[in-house]
Fold this protein.
Amino acid sequence: MTVSELFEQIRRKQSFLCVGLDTNTRKIPQHLLSCDDPVFCFNRKIIDATAAYAVCYKPNLAFYEENGRAGWESLEKTIRYIREKYPEILIIADAKRGDIGNTSQMYARAFFGHDLADGVTLSPYMGRDTVDPFLKFDGKWAVLLALTSNPSAADFELQRLEDGSLLYEKVIKTSSQWGTPDNMMYVVGATQARMLTNIRQLIPDHFLLVPGVGAQGGSLEEVAQYGMNRQCGLLVNSSRGIIYADTTERFAEAAADTAAQMAAQMSQLLKTYL
């Protein structure tokens, strides 16, 4: 999928919503636990309820890896379901991989060689060797952690270097030379929204994956105001706020209602800032 194709989907749906599939069996409605695969049963209902508003789904692999082999089976079934019913929707595997050499190549093949994702989140700490293998696959994306929304992000990301720049700026400046806006995205937390103006000066054309709106307190309005570019350039992720909007048998309807509300707000923001 190219930037143009992603933007066309955003224009068609009037939404730049990414739904995070952080599916936890301890939080899903109890009546689903009798299913053969409770995680997949839950995901399928959430996907069907939100597909009209979502341009991206982002399964967080930790929630699947926790369940061992059964978790991977749930993940694969979820991805195949999206591929078959909603092939236009982008899938980002939130894996936060970060290794070098053959190991990085194997990670890239694991996700892209089996079409398990259109993009994979990566930690760029070990440099270009971490990212390059993921850039060798046409139509796929390396999604690099840049400026995250967790409280301890300042431990490293906001450290000032000798040249006066911040570490996250160095990461963006250097890594943006390795690929193009058609195969690289960056993760920028919504709680850092006011810093998006500076980030857009560094990477005006790249898409940004923006978690932290909703449960983490990030402002969708500020993200759009400071981060939107001429092709939108934003995938705003909401996980808990949508998938756990209700824990009764109405969970899918509640997820649809919440996603619809976010999409309506996004539609207005597209009209305002695009």
